[in-house]
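tl;dr need the bound structure. longer version: we got a ligand (flavin-adenine dinucleotide) that a collaborator sent over and nobodys looked at where it sits. i said id run it. heres the input, straight from their email, havent touched it
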Amino acid sequence: MPSDLNSPRPIVVLGAGIIGLTTAIRLLETPLYQEKHHPVHIIADHLPDDPLDPRYASTIAGAHHLSFADDGDERQRRWDRRTFKVMYDEWAREGESTGLMRIKQTELFVGHRQHLHIYEEHPDFQVMDPSQLPEGVDHAVKFTSLTMTPAIYLNRLLRRIHELSYGQVTIHRYHLPSLSHITDPSIQTMLGTSLTPLAIFVCVGSGAIDLGGVEDKSVYPTRGQIVKIRAPWVKEGMTRQVGQLNGGEGGERTYIIPRSSGEVVLGGTREVDDWETQPRDETTRNILRRVLEVCPNLLSSSADSTLTSDNKGSEQSSTEVAVKGREEKSRLESLIVDVLVGFRPSRQGGVRVERGHDLIFEEADHEGTKVVYNYGHGGAGWQSCWGTAEDAISIL
Ligand SMILES: Cc1cc2nc3c(=O)[nH]c(=O)nc-3n(C[C@H](O)[C@H](O)[C@H](O)COP(=O)(O)OP(=O)(O)OC[C@H]3O[C@@H](n4cnc5c(N)ncnc54)[C@H](O)[C@@H]3O)c2cc1C
């Protein structure tokens, strides 16, 4: 019999992206942790300060809060709404040091005249007057939203984990090949106990495709390429959606996401099942062309990204327009800081937040290990993280 049988069993959070870290925080706030002091361990291949890697989606993301939740998808709406509230309160309390930035957001729609109803819940929501719409745009709305600087926010979560646990949460860099591997002697040494975990929270993003015991074949990458520029004068967000969203992956989406750091993320692409890790030059050119169409004033340091009469076309000759276009593009290129690729962890059927079968280990002297899944957030992990973390903890 192991000598530590009466000690509280460890709890493991697998994954240190936005989903794993928010899940760990909500776990540390539960009476289960606060009263019984189960040792909590975070195990992950990638950690927030690592060099950027397309497979670690959280560090590549735009990221803004711009829900994709269909009007009838109450579960996703609830997660997105809850996350907006948590983050908005954080921003209101502590400002941009959080990595969050409050912005005015404009959503332009081409090919249809409807917006998602959830936008109406944002502060300052308004439908734009049709007479103000840029050429080719069929409908537009404005509201207040948030953007996130991933490295700052993820590190803030790590600090919060440290504070809540009085430094007792241990973070291990380790690739877990399968869930059952959790009883391997090397892991027991790593966790410092021969007790099998009470629970594992599986927050592995696209790692769910390969992780033994999960091997979720409904998970697939939706590749995104983005261009990061330095343009601290841009203070407003803008998105153009061509065609229907279809729950988040449909149509063509062009976006401008200013961050509190002065960087601006320009995007994007949604390439289903595409594992190409290197940026494609033609895609970069395409993104730059599209963002200038959406926001001709992007380069003007005296202007914000608000729509102006420029968008409606002025009385210039076609030669003047072409020359101006080339100049704008080369100025935009000179502001590029980085071109990045990331794989959104998409999943047919949407996010998986549910309890799985317990892991039963014959050699263990106690009940099995509970498994709680929290992965498959596609392009919406940042904007739904607190909502899904709270659901994952509530079903333990
Ligand atoms: C270009 C782009 C733009 C985006 N823009 C937005 C946006 O504006 N708003 C928004 O809400 N979302 C956006 N997203 C989506 C968002 O980034 C993801 O939904 C979110 O990051 C998923 O978080 P995650 O923690 O589940 O996965 P990840 O961040 O990928 O983290 C997975 C973690 O699991 C670990 N892991 C995996 N397998 C194993 C294993 N076997 N053993 C140990 N560790 C393992 C990894 O090392 C990592 O720590 C964007 C994504 C991209 C790529």
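gonna send this back to them w/ a short note. Residues 11-394 form a domain with the D-Amino Acid Oxidase; Chain A, domain 2 fold (CATH 3.30.9.10).
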